[in-house]
Amino acid sequence: MLTLTENASTIVKDITAQQGGSDTAGLRITSEDPAQGLMVTAAPEPQPGDQTVEADGAKVYLDVPASQALDDQILDAAVDEAGRVQFALAPQA
After folding, report:
1. Deepest in the core among 20, 29, 42, 92, taking most CB within 10 A?
2. Burial of 82 by CB count in 10 Å (0-12 exposed, 13-18 middle, 19+ buried)?
3. Contact residues for 41 (Cβ-Cβ < 8 A; gap 6+)
4. Whole-Å CA distances, 77 to 12, 20, 21
5. Interatomic CA distance for residues 90 and 75, integer angstroms
6. What string of H, E and C letters represents the secondary structure of 24-75?
7. Can you list the domains of the chain with their CATH numbers?
8. Distance (Å, rounded) from C-alpha 24 to C-alpha 31?
9. C-alpha gyration radius of the chain
10. Which residues contact 6 (CB under 8 A, 6 or more apart)?
11. Residues near 76 by Cβ (< 8 Å), separated by ≥ 6?
């Protein structure tokens, strides 16, 4: 199952708070079009069939293809000098 670093958890919580911050808000990762890779969007709640990953109060929702692709990954995040969020994946040890 996908895991989140402390940085990723903090950034996910910050993003969802900016979007309204309901108890069910989180980031949703989808892989509907393999040619475009993974897509990350803010979501008010999970969609039917989504896997929910929670870490330190942060919620990430994965559609079925993304859940399968990220099953053994760690999600990290950082904010660059311009204020843009950058996500990175690494294999779990």
Report:
1. 29
2. exposed
3. 27, 28, 30
4. 9, 21, 19
5. 7
6. CCEEEEECCCHHHCCEEEEECCCCCCCEEEEECCEEEEECHHHHHHCCCEEE
7. 3-91 (2.60.300.12)
8. 21
9. 12
10. 56
11. 4, 5, 7, 8, 87, 88, 89, 90
Which of 15-19, 62-66, 83-87 has the weakest average pLDDT? Answer: 15-19
The predicted model scores a pTM of: 0.90
Residue with the two structure tokens 């942060």 = 58
Amino acid identity of residue 41, one-letter, is T
| 87 closest CA partner among 17, 10, 32, 19 | 10
How is residue 54 written in tokens? 């929670």
The first and second tokens of residue 1, run together, are 């199952």
pLDDT in tens, 41-81: 999 999 999 999 999 999 999 999 999 999 999 999 999 99
